[in-house]
Design a protein that fits this description.
The protein is α/β, with parallel strands linked by helices. The chain is built from 6 helices and 14 strands. A 9-stranded mixed sheet has the order 8-7-6-9-10-11-12-13-14, covered by helices on one side. A 3-stranded mixed sheet has the order 1-5-4, with helices on one face. The chain has a two-stranded antiparallel sheet with strand order 2-3. Helix 2 runs antiparallel to helix 3. 18% of the residues are buried. The model has no long low-confidence stretch (mean pLDDT 88).
Length: 276
């Protein structure tokens, strides 16, 4: 037999339900408002930002990106400056994307009101130039990573590289050139092998100052007064160094003669020409 419930009992249940809903909503509002208020307390909000390790990058440029990230609130409630909730990962991502000069960065908590942004900047190892005159160049670090435009240098302050990056010309926008890697399509060790070869040449008094990589993979290394050392980028550098060393020993004293070129592209044979 079905249990009879009076209209009065039903109304009482509805009132109790409404009271519970209102109580829950009021509790939720109280909780949100109190936690929102707590999140904005100065004692646990970022007030001081220290930037260290930057030598080229301007501190104000870095701070602007940080300030943009910690301004405002989450869901219009919680302060983004709160030391527990500030968007650390987003700040790191934005800084790395904004400044190709940054090699590494770490954001650390100093106290409940301060953070430290430690930056490691890339150091210039050489220049890569998009024109053969070497008038428009980019700084390149020891990993062959292009990270910033370079000013014009009056002398050979840095070794210069030309070519070796496909699809880039003098008309290519700067932002499309930055973050590229020299010899990017080759084995990652290739840049190190080329540089070791260049350093070994100094031991036999061939002090080069620029390398031109051509589309057919011919490499032209310039030394002295525009003398050229020609070789193929796929050759074994240890072998061609030994061939060159043996060739120079066989030639003996050159006195005042200068090479126009030395061509090492042929197995066990060195082709060369002196300047007239």
């Amino acid at each position: 037999m079905a249990k009879y419930i009076s209209k009065r009992a039903i109304e009482r249940q509805r009132k109790r339900f409404r009271r519970r809903v209102i109580l829950i909503l009021l509790s939720l509002v109280l909780l949100l408002s109190s936690t929102s208020w707590l999140s904005g307390l100065e004692k646990i909000n970022i007030q001081n930002i220290d930037v260290t390790g930057n030598f080229v990058l301007r501190e104000n440029d870095i701070l602007k990106i940080v300030d943009d990230n910690i301004s405002g609130k989450y869901l219009w409630l919680y302060s983004k400056r709160n030391i527990l909730f500030y968007p650390k990962s987003k700040i790191e991502k934005d800084l790395l994307e904004s400044f190709s000069q940054i090699k590494d960065l770490k954001i650390k908590l100093k106290d409940f009101r301060s953070i430290d942004i430690g930056i490691t900047e890339r150091k210039p190892y050489a220049l890569w130039c998009d024109d053969l005159l070497g008038e428009h160049c980019y700084f390149m670090d020891g990993l062959a990573y292009l990270y910033d435009e370079a000013p014009n240098f009056s002398n050979n302050t840095y070794f210069k590289y030309f070519g070796g990056i496909s699809g880039v010309s003098t008309s290519t926008p700067v932002q499309q050139v930055l973050r590229q890697t020299y010899f990017g399509e080759k084995d990652s060790k290739h840049f190190g092998e080329v540089n070791l070869f260049i350093r070994l040449l100094k031991d036999i008094n061939i002090d080069s100052y620029k390398l031109v990589v051509k589309e057919n993979n011919d490499y032209e290394l310039f030394f002295d007064n525009n003398s050229r050392l020609i070789f193929d980028g796929n050759q074994n550098f240890d072998e061609i160094f030994e061939d060159l060393q043996a060739f120079l020993i066989e030639l003996g004293d050159l006195k005042d003669r200068e090479f126009e070129y030395i061509d090492l592209r042929f197995d066990n044979k060195v082709v060369y020409k002196f300047r007239d």
